[in-house]
């Protein structure tokens, strides 16, 4: 399959080039030239299939033309060595728990898949010393770093905003060493993302270095996130709850909801989506006014959503041919302040015993505010609450058990490089 740039000013490329390059030369994001509809027989049988079997069917629709079946199956099965269960919370609202992977966040799916696919292509090309650049507002860095840890021929540079990720999140990518370098940027996530994008457009860097990205701008990162939407549907189908499904998606860089929209285009029976924002409500305001007005992000307790200029917004526009009316048929928006988020975490815990993280709280509250009686609501619980330990314990007044996986990261020694947000300094660092 060919992949085109959302800016429509660059030649179409194959999967290998789209994955290895990450960003198109015209600064656009790659999109598949077609989105294949899956047959009805797949949906009729989906309740009897394992997560890995479901994911392989979806992956084959995207990547099957470019990767031999055995290799693709191995990548999918190795990626998904954990579950993404649907858990009932209250009434007709369910949590899709995406925190059962190695770094306890939803990005383990896309991060692990991309690490394996990129490793396969690099080995196939005989390349060495590939530099993977990734900007993180929290969970991307840990998922990507751990996905690529120890992969030969690849060095990962994780750029993160100083003082704006939780301590546990920081431990997950600053204590690894080996082929992982953490760079602490004196700025916001948007500054980190701008450094990565600018690097891909710099002629000298591209002549001298093999660069690629592991952010959701890379098709190998965001497309696999469609897997768990299908798995959620399968679980609800087994419960007889698969009619009129509404997915509420905590949204920052919009890769997650874009993957859900693509799942719907592939035939997944989804009624609609809710994009749940924190105080960085750029997309919410776009839905209200039709004006897209990116601005510097503000810091919130749902830090992974602190994005003022979502990269994947252009993919949403592309899917709907820039029609606001068509977008609004599939997506509504909500946004919540820190105070709203805190109330939701506390009230939900006190009332149901279910502990939300700040991001999942946005998704849950959006369903409470918008869900109709004949709909089944699923919110994406994108990270384990223990990753936001001080915040969550401060809200509930109760201790949060820290999973063993997180405790192991916390024992390591922080290794990071301080850097300003100016591109010239970052460029010189990469060249050295």
From TrEMBL:
Keywords: Amino-acid biosynthesis, Lyase, Pyridoxal phosphate, Threonine biosynthesis
Reported cofactor(s): pyridoxal 5'-phosphate
Record-linked Pfam families: PALP, Thr_synth_N
Positions of the Threonine synthase N-terminal domain: 2-78
GO molecular function, one term: threonine synthase activity
Family to which the UniProt record says this protein belongs: Belongs to the threonine synthase family.
The protein's name: Threonine synthase
Organism name: Dysgonomonas termitidis
């Amino acid at each position: 399959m060919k992949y085109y740039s959302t800016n429509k000013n660059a030649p179409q490329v194959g999967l290998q080039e789209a994955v290895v390059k990450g960003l198109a030369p015209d600064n656009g994001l790659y999109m598949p030239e077609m989105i294949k509809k899956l047959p009805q027989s797949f949906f009729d049988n989906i309740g009897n299939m394992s997560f890995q079997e479901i994911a392989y069917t979806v992956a084959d629709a995207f990547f099957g033309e470019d990767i031999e079946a055995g290799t693709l199956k191995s990548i999918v099965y190795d990626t998904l060595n954990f579950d993404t269960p649907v858990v009932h919370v209250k009434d007709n609202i369910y949590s899709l728990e995406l925190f059962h992977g190695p770094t306890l966040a939803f990005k383990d799916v896309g991060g692990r898949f991309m690490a394996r696919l990129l490793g396969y292509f690099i080995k196939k090309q005989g390349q060495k010393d590939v530099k993977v650049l990734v900007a993180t507002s929290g969970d991307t860095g840990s998922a990507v770093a751990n996905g690529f840890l120890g992969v030969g021929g690849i060095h990962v540079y994780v750029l993160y905003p100083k003082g704006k990720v939780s301590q546990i999140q920081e431990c997950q990518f600053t204590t690894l060493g080996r082929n992982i370098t953490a760079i602490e940027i004196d700025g916001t996530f948007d500054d980190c993302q701008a450094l990565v994008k600018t690097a891909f457009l710099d002629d000298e860097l591209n002549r001298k270095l093999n660069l690629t990205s592991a952010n959701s701008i890379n098709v190998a990162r965001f497309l696999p996130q469609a897997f768990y939407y299908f798995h959620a549907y399968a679980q609800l189908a087994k419960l007889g709850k698969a009619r009129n499904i509404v997915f509420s998606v905590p949204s920052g860089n919009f890769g997650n909801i874009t993957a859900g929209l693509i799942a719907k285009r592939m035939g997944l029976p989804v009624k609609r989506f809710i994009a749940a924002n924190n105080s960085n409500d750029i997309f919410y305001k776009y839905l209200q006014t039709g004006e897209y007005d990116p601005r510097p992000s503000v810091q919130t307790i749902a830090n992974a959503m602190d994005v003022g200029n979502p990269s994947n917004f252009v993919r949403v526009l592309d899917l709907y041919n820039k029609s606001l009316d068509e977008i609004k048929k599939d997506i509504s928006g909500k946004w919540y302040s820190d105070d709203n988020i805190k109330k939701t975490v506390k009230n939900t815990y006190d009332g149901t015993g279910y502990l939300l993280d700040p991001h999942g709280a946005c998704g849950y509250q959006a369903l409470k505010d918008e869900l109709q009686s004949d709909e089944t609501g699923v919110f994406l619980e994108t990270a384990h609450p223990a990753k936001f330990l001080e915040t969550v314990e401060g809200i509930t007044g109760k201790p949060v058990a820290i999973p063993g996986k997180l405790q192991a990261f916390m024992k390591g020694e922080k290794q990071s490089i301080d850097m300003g947000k100016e591109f010239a300094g970052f460029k010189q660092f990469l060249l050295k």
